[in-house]
Amino acid sequence: MSAYPLEIQASLLEEAEKLASKKDISLSQWIESMIQAEIEAEKGRERIEKYARKADYAKFDAIMARVPDVPPMEGDEILD
After folding, report:
1. What is the number of helices (H) and of strands (E) in the chain?
2. pLDDT band at 1, cuts 50/70/90?
3. Helix 10-22 to helix 27-54 angle, to the nearest 10 degrees?
4. Whole-number Cα distances in Å, 54 to 10, 40, 43, 63, 77
5. Which of 12, 18, 42, 72 could serve as 76's disulfide partner, Cβ 3.0–4.6 Å?
6. CA distance 6 to 1
7. What percent of the chain has pLDDT over 70?
8. More confident residue, 40 or 77
9. Per the confidence metrics, is the pTM higher than 0.70?
């Protein structure tokens, strides 16, 4: 494990301490889990972008053209 000095605004530190306390873990564990979550989210975004670059939009349009044009089922309507 490595150490890294981190400067955090007092108000953010206070909120982070409260959240860590609610989860009954140390502040260090909470910060580490938040960093890990953000890393995984970024990897997911990169993976989706990679797949999007490989997408065949002509095939997508052909598949979507086969979908019948019917009103949405009750409860699936788009609400404004």
Report:
1. 3, 0
2. confident
3. 90
4. 45, 21, 17, 17, 31
5. 72
6. 15
7. 100
8. 40
9. no
User: What does the alpha-carbon distance between residue 23 and residue 37 come to, in Å, rounded to a whole number?
Assistant: 16
Q: Contacts from 3-9 at CB under 8 Å and sequence distance 24+?
A: 6/31
> How many Cβ atoms from other residues are within 10 Å of residue 32's Cβ?
13
Burial class (CB in 10 A: 0-12, 13-18, 19+), 27: middle
Task: Examine the pLDDT at 60 and tell me if it is beyond 90.
Answer: yes
- Phi-psi sector, 24: left (phi>0), alpha (psi -120 to 50), beta: left
Question: Rg of the chain's alpha carbons, rounded to an integer?
Answer: 22
Question: Residue written as tokens 């890990």?
Answer: 36
Spatial separation of the C-alpha atoms in residues 48 and 46, rounded to whole Å: 5
The pLDDT of residue 53: 95
